[in-house]
Amino acid sequence: IAQRPVRSQSELARLLAAEGVQVTQATLSRDLEDIGARKVRGADGGLVYAVDVNLAPAEIVRLPLTRLCEELLVSVEANGDLVVLRTPPGAAQLFASALDREALPAVMGTIAGDDTVLVVCRAQLSGPGDGSISGGTPDGGENPVQAPLPGDSAAGPVPGGPALAAHLLRLADGRARAVPGVAATPVRSRTPPGAGAVLAGSGTPDDDFSRNPT
Q1: Where do the domains of the chain lie?
Q2: Average pLDDT for residues 181-185, to the nearest whole number?
Q3: The architecture CATH gives domain 63-123+158-177
Q4: Which of 2, 26, 96, 108 has the smallest number of CB atoms closer than 10 Å to its CB?
Q5: Residue 54: its pLDDT value, please?
Q6: What is the mean pLDDT of residues 202-209?
Q7: What is the rounded average pLDDT for all residues in the chain?
Q8: Is the pLDDT of residue 51 over 50?
Q9: How far apart are CA 138 and CA 144, in angstroms?
């Protein structure tokens, strides 16, 4: 990465294979995150991987999700318990790995392609309460659920996708990302008909997505 422009994980895997190093893309994605690799604008205007040599070791191992949202999140769309995230080409697995490591209680899991991440969220419960995520289910199980929201008179399942989308939008500050050869798409979230759009700065509490202390 320091010696030549590398535009994608597949290109990096080919370069490593030429040097006799065989590595899976999943391992490569984790390793790129661990060394603090990120996509930056190269001399020709395209996005290439780079490592910030000024980062301390602790910072390299643990890049904040906020930083990745600011630099890699192109668009966000939510529908029910599903969220679709778009990134620059080759960055989806890096972003998904960072999201997995956040261990957000509302997130069940992620699936990453080249420039798209599918996030599966847990359905949350609404009703009288403070709108925070509890540490477990009412029956003592392991799956955390959202405590009822203020003003709700009855408990019931609430799709988790729009709330997660709003949280990621806050981290990205709602800015559009430019991808070479692709028109810039405003970072946004689309909810099911009648639910209204969730935009950066909407009223979903950030506490709903604080890291699970356990």
Answers
A1: 1-62, 63-123+158-177
A2: 40
A3: 2-Layer Sandwich (3.30)
A4: 2
A5: 56
A6: 42
A7: 69
A8: yes
A9: 9
